[in-house]
């Protein structure tokens, strides 16, 4: 594969603008890396599959370029003839070639981003240091910053939402390729070393070519847990402590040394193994297994670090003084080796090691290392930290600060950050399941009652009384349904986890589709049944409502106002430090009301919640359920946090990291560290530098309300009110075929129907991305703007340009649309529309979509003052443009294979080919689900 991605080699990519030329010159190394990997991939294809297939790949690529550039009908017919003439076996091999280019191009781009970060040219490079500098310039000193971080919380939460189509086996090989590219750049290689590096690259690419791109079996929940834990090895276990320690050092620069260490404000969270909403495979036993796997990973890390630390701390007692408490710690060590008799630090480390292995045994978690002797298990992570602190204080007091700042410092920070649980596991379930569980318990305990027949106020009264009751609602003499027993078992497992691993193991219970006060009170009652909520008003866990639909977002402020006014619930909040978390769902609100209305209703909900919580004197912590794609709330994290309304961040934020976004952000330690810095910096800036940024002018809010209403009408009119739209969607996308991919343990729909309402937001967005329409990320905006201008010509376009210039929220909204539209292709989408057998339906709906697509681009460019999409982001613009010649063929092949599959072709290679195209397109688009 020649991979002619260099602009001078293809007329459609030739730069004719000064800013393009300048940017391209800055990315010479990127082009060199792509050329290198492309040459190796081409040689691999030729060597493994023959010159004939290699030539076929090139013909398809060149024809695809012509079709994409001009919607060239001749090129379209030529492309169809080529694809029609191929055998299924050839098609699958072609797909693999183009898919692997997407994966290798991603590696090259990631390396280029790292290169720019190092050079200080990347947009996020040193962002935390810059934010601290801004804080100092604003008169905020080190003491104030330390106080801020004492109560701050920045928590990325990994989820198992199935949009990551790569296998870990291929990811591992890709990481080896990335490491080799990195070494070539950072080390001056001799001729022999360079030749060996080339050979190793060829070896890795060939291994990739001969590795299954797709999983052959369905993932279990514990498989998903294991995959999620990989990112702790890649990034989190080392980079979280390094980031917090580096921040601590920066706060001490310039002689501003404050007493005490910086609080560990960066805490990892997870839903993997705790998210039961729509996933029947997440059971109490699976949750227990999840916690054991998490604990095993972190305990193994601690033991490995202690092993190395013991070898490093070879300090002899007769050459350096040690503290009395260290001597005492050393004396308690079970290590009797004469070789370490005069080395108190090593003896102390051996003792800590022995106690930690005993702790792992007590917690029933697997470890591979064994101690030199027996020790008593730690009762809590605080005891382990206290022993490590003894080593630290002894080194500091005896003039060995530089040693204390090495591995020991990182281990102490890791223990403080990860405890024995590694990640804070949320448990989540749909409010309807809680409702049925409580109904069964209540009806059994109160003969003649029908809980489900009660109105909301009656339920609130009944549940509030139950919260105060000291009796158990559950009876050992009643046989409950499997669903109810399953829910009770999960809550019992959560209580066990608190006793075993500490309260940080499961700190949140999240209620999906929360629609009222009773939904929250039902969960509080269930928690009381297992002792996590006490009748006296104490709670060991946060009850977190998740507001997801447009209607629920609009009601969220009034629901929380009443909840915080309810004495019995308010006592629970006060027992949790007067902090109440509220989760906002970006995905379902988008599917419900469209991109513009979802973004606007989320923003308004936050304004309302900030006001309510301030009146009640309760700290609001928002949990943002963002997906990877713009259609599910994705987009740059920094911009999203900064664009929050005043008071919405307030020092604490949790954000989901989902699907393929996890691997793109956190599979490389350097990139991962930068992404963690971005979250921390944005939280700091939003909270301290403009905590009460001036509210948007009333006319801005009014205009946005009007635009949202018009966009909502356009979106709902298409998706929910157009006859035949459901048939169009299922025929023109890969929604059916996505369900055959082994990419997650959760079903695609909540119910066994074809209704859009019952479809999960992830496959909804994923399907539109595959056919290159990205409809959930833009539909309705163009027609909304046109109608708004027609109705308010006095303000018109100049006013919308002012909104874009002056209001971060509106700027972010348009910036995200800019990105998603740049990845779309109406030419490609037109081929998917042809899969709809009803020609009249196809013309009616696709014609409407095409008009809206053109309108949206035209109005977007006008408001942003751009001549073309992504004009303000040349790096991303080139990245997207350079991918099309390799991405488009995958779409064309996918369409042909879909025709075959739906015509009942019995060849299993056809479905496999479709699955491979899904993988390749997902890799090429990067944020698709």
Biggest beta sheet attributes: 9 strands, parallel
Query: Total number of β-strand segments?
Result: 9
- Low-pLDDT runs of 5+ residues are 3-20, 629-634
Q: Widest sheet: strand order?
A: 3-2-1-9-8-7-6-5-4
The first-to-last residue Cα distance is 29 Å
The whole-angstrom Rg is 29 Å
Q: Can you characterise this structure?
A:
It is a single chain. This protein is mainly α and 929 residues long. Helix 20 (517-529) links the parallel strand 5 (508-512) and strand 6. The protein is globular and about 85 Å long.
What keywords describe this structure?
929 residues; 63% helix; globular; mainly alpha; 9 strands
Describe the secondary structure blueprint for this structure.
Blueprint: H1 18-26, H2 28-49, H3 51-70, H4 73-85, H5 88-119, H6 127-137, H7 142-150, E1 153-158, H8 168-186, H9 191-209, H10 221-251, E2 269-270, H11 284-312, H12 324-331, H13 344-363, H14 381-397, H15 401-404, H16 407-418, E3 424-425, E4 427-430, H17 431-445, H18 456-468, H19 482-501, E5 508-512, H20 517-529, E6 542-547, H21 550-565, H22 567-575, E7 579-585, H23 586-593, H24 595-616, E8 619-625, H25 637-642, E9 652-657, H26 660-666, H27 669-689, H28 698-719, H29 725-732, H30 735-738, H31 761-770, H32 781-791, H33 796-806, H34 808-823, H35 826-833, H36 839-864, H37 874-902, H38 908-925
Parallel strand pairs: 1-2, 1-9, 2-3, 4-5, 5-6, 6-7, 7-8, 8-9
